[in-house]
Write a structure and sequence with these properties.
Blueprint: E1 2-6, H1 17-20, E2 26-31, H2 44-55, E3 60-65, H3 71-75, H4 80-97, E4 101-104, E5 116-120, E6 126-130, H5 132-137, H6 140-147, H7 160-163, H8 166-172, H9 178-199, E7 202-205, H10 224-233, E8 239-244, H11 245-249, H12 256-263, E9 267-271, E10 276-277, E11 283-284, H13 297-306, E12 312-314, H14 333-353
Parallel strand pairs: 1-2, 1-12, 2-3, 3-4, 4-7, 7-8, 8-9, 9-12
Antiparallel strand pairs: 5-6, 6-11, 10-11
Helix pairs in contact: 2-4, 4-9, 12-13, 13-14
EC number: 4.2.1.8
Protein name: Mannonate dehydratase
Catalytic activity: D-mannonate = 2-dehydro-3-deoxy-D-gluconate + H2O
């Protein structure tokens, strides 16, 4: 197992590589070219420049999160051919540079949704929060304004230039069913997975966050049955999963440890985080400690150990603690605590097996 840490790049992240280097056991930097819009080709030179910077600090740079899928691919428009061709070129360039895993999602319009990026918790820390009733009563523009309140740090999937046409994009999905979205995903996978196989790059789809429909948009990556269907669309090992315990864990019906045992070598990348679920449908991103949330983090880490997981796990989001300021969910301190909690479970399991 490799422990990874998501980093947004030099000049785009208040957390520095020198800081991350001091987190015990952390070997991978999970990265992306965040200035690239969905559908653009990632050029060889800029890939090499970013990877060389990461590697110069003693890290591996084998996991990319994310190469975003253009909306026209999800919608199944004729223009998708151009964007699929660009995606294939990016896969080739990343594979040639030594990247092993590409995380992506197939969520229409919104990559993820929260209603408050800094909800204060009883201990004074702040965390990402989802308020069900507020979302039900809000417009998409209301949510966009909430997410973009801090212009200093762009949020992944919420780039202002892409959201400027949000109403038009949502309207385009009115005639797109879940089956249509599955069909469009299959069309995409049938064209890119052979390239992934050729260049030994594993594609890893991220679950819907939250794992249910929002604003009446179709969602198809929300539970074990849908994940299995996606793997069956192109039944080849390079078509795999980013298994996110926090995204899936927002729905109490999702048994994440069971999914780990079910999917095993098709899990190419893992996000481990906790959420506290409220009875009314709200949830907040708690610390990684199992007792602080509703997700069985200990069982999840034990399941990864039991299947002999060799991929990359990152702590995903964290609270903001100790007066840290920065990109919501992506501070240094709480994610570092999460890593130590996960490694503690892993080390204990290893001792028990000796």
């Amino acid at each position: 197992m490799d422990i990874g840490f998501r980093w947004y790049g030099e000049g785009n992240d208040n957390v520095k590589l020198e800081n991350i280097r001091q987190i015990p056991g952390t070997t991978q930097i999970v990265w992306a070219l965040h200035h690239k819009a969905a559908g653009e080709v990632w050029e060889k030179e800029e890939i090499q420049r970013e990877m060389q910077l990461i590697e110069s600090h003693g890290f591996k740079a084998e996991v990319v999160e994310s190469v975003n899928v253009h909306e026209d691919i999800k919608l199944g428009l004729p223009s998708r051919e151009e964007y699929i061709a660009n995606y294939i070129e990016t896969i080739k360039n990343l594979g040639g540079a030594g990247v092993k895993v590409i995380c992506y999602n197939f969520m229409p319009v919104f990559d993820w949704i929260r209603t408050d990026l800094a909800k204060e918790m009883p201990d004074g820390s702040t965390a990402l929060f989802y308020e069900k009733d507020l979302l039900n009563d809000a417009s998409p523009q209301d949510i966009i304004e909430r997410v973009l309140q801090n212009p200093e740090f762009t949020m992944p999937g919420w780039e202002p230039e892409r959201l400027s046409k949000i109403e038009d994009t949502i309207q385009q999905y009115e005639s797109v069913s879940e089956d249509d979205l599955f069909s469009n995903l299959q069309y995409f996978l049938e064209r890119v997975i052979p390239v992934c196989k050729e260049h030994d790059v594993r594609l890893a789809i991220h679950p819907d966050d939250p794992p249910w429909s929002v604003f009446n948009l179709p969602r198809i990556v929300s539970n074990q049955e849908q994940l299995q269907r996606i793997l069956s669309l192109v039944d080849e090992e390079h078509n795999g999963l980013t298994l996110c315990s926090g995204a899936l864990g927002a729905n109490k019906e999702n048994d994440v440890p069971a999914m780990i045992h079910a999917f095993q070598n098709r899990i190419h990348f893992a996000h481990v985080r906790n959420v506290y679920r409220y009875d009314n449908g709200d949830f907040i991103e708690s610390s990684h400690r199992e007792e602080d949330g509703s997700v069985p983090i200990t069982d999840i880490m034990n399941a990864y150990y039991d299947i002999g997981y060799k991929g990359c796990i990152r702590p995903d989001h964290g609270r903001h603690i100790w007066d840290e300021e920065g990109r919501p969910g992506y501070g240094l301190y709480d994610r570092a605590l999460g890593i130590m909690y996960m490694l503690g479970i892993w080390d204990q399991k290893r001792k028990e097996q000796k």
